[in-house]
Amino acid sequence: MAAMSAIHIDIAEKRYPAVAGAPARDVFRDFRLEVAANEFLVLLGASGLGKTTLLNIIAGLDTAYSGKVSFGAGTPCIAYAFQSPRLLPWRTVLGNVALPLPSGEEARGRAMAMLGEVGLADLASAYPERLSLGQQRRVALARAFVIEPDVLLMDEPFVSLDEAGAARLRELLRRLLAKRPATVLFVTHDSREAVELASRVVVLEGEPARIVRDAPVGLSREERAAPARIDELRRAIGIGG
Questions:
Q1: pLDDT tens for each residue of 117-172
Q2: What's the CATH code, domain 5-77+148-237?
Q3: b (16+ CB within 10 A) / e for 67-83
Q4: Which DSSP letter does residue 132 get?
Q5: Using omega within 30 degrees of 0 as the cis cutoff, is the peptide bond preceding 208 cis?
Q6: What residue stretches are annotated with the ABC transporter domain (predicted)?
Q7: Helix (H), strand (E) at residue 174
Q8: End-to-end CA distance of the chain, in Å?
Q9: What does the DSSP 8-state code read for residue 186?
């Protein structure tokens, strides 16, 4: 990663086409965002604003736009944790984690080590249907981190979990990033989750989407575990009642 901006996003225009009688609409127009290397940037906003679309553009999955996404140094290794775990049902847990790696014993060893880090080594030979949603999301995290990405895109990866389960996965994510630093773009509509995780929060509103708040989050590890401190900062940023 470059010492300057890890990701430069400059979207002149992105539109959703007309569908089933609904008119075409602008998602982004003259939208710019800089993301620094190893920053944990949370994109916060209501559903339908284009947050997932922005991640897809960065990942290269959506090329139907005018503009450019560039990276600080060469082509980074990008991992994507989707809103659903997207595990292949015909592959074992170990096979799903090893999926992005070259085949071979070394890859299996790396995948097995990652399963150990997320607490699922004993389920390596199980199939996804046997797993709870929380376990499936742990597998998805292991699959993302096994390639040691430079850039990690995360689209509401803890949605549909109860608060206790989501809190455990947020802590797991912090531990994994402490060992394998990456530039993270994390999408959520939960302002508490945003402040607990982020080093920077960017709030999107409107159509086309625009940045209405861009705030650093300077909380210590202890403060991130204190709900009162999180709520205080939410109010200071203007994203909490």
A1: 999 999 999 999 999 999 999 999 999 999 999 999 999 999 999 999 999 999 99
A2: 3.40.50.300
A3: bebebbeeebebbbbee
A4: -
A5: yes
A6: 7-231
A7: helix 163-179
A8: 37
A9: E
